[in-house]
Design a protein that fits this description.
Strand content: over 45%
Largest sheet: 9 strands, antiparallel
Number of strands: 24
CATH superfamily: Jelly Rolls
CATH architecture: Sandwich
Bound molecules: manganese (II) ion
Number of domains: 1
Radius of gyration: 19 Å
Helix content: under 10%
Oligomer: single chain
Length: 292
Amino acid sequence: MDLDRPALEIWPSRIADVGGQSVHRALPKHLHRTVGPWCFVDLFGPSAQPTRIGPHPHIGLHTVTWLFDGEIVHTDSLGTRQPIRPGQLNLMTAGRGVAHAEQSADSFSGHIHGVQLWVAQPETTRWGDPAFEHHESLPRVVLGRSDATVLAGSFGGVASPARTDTPMVGVQANVRASFEAPLDPSFEHVVVVAEGSVTIEDPMTLEPRVVEAYETAYLPLGHDALALSSESRARILLLGGEPFGTEILMWWNFVARTWDEMAEARADWVTDSDRFAAVDSALDRIAAPPLG
Ligand code: MN
């Protein structure tokens, strides 16, 4: 391979701990802190261990929850209590501050398997009101033997009803045989493989590249399609957007621009201020780690 020529970048996930469970974290990645507005990608499960994530705060981001298997009940400081099942989308907007808890349904005894994604909010909305959306069903596109569910933005001529604050796309596809994904050339993209493996035709080098489970492939802007294939079935996420354009800081559960903002948000959680209202949950509030 010609090392001077740009090529698809592929990186492994790293293992992180969330509520006592190991997850595969695909983003953030050094030199790719954001892909469009996407700033955090966790793949969790499949796990028989129940999810028990107590009340914790967020600022400056949307959380996007999507399950392959299982059921999780979301409760938040807006008074929402919403179970989520496979095929449904939970989208929480933190704005200036929200708190939530996530735990397996009491009646549920199977496996939990899914993704949690964070989307950075732009300056125009990040000090706004918190909000919550649940989408019972989302538009699907069938492309040959593959299918794709549009979580956010537009893909293949259909649009998700989910809120977006900046130009972006989020798709979960099941790739069988070949799959030609139409792309917006003004977006940068990643393909995150959640299960199975895919071969991507690198549009820059024209060489096939294999992307295994828990690996992420990054494609810069300027491409209007991506050809993928899988010999069995692969579950992938295709995430993209206009480059975010603003340096963000991420610490704990917060997305901000300055360390003063982080310190203030941390203090507001520690002192139980009105900024983060109470969450109806039997689980303990999660304590903020020390800053820096
Ligand atoms: Mn959270």
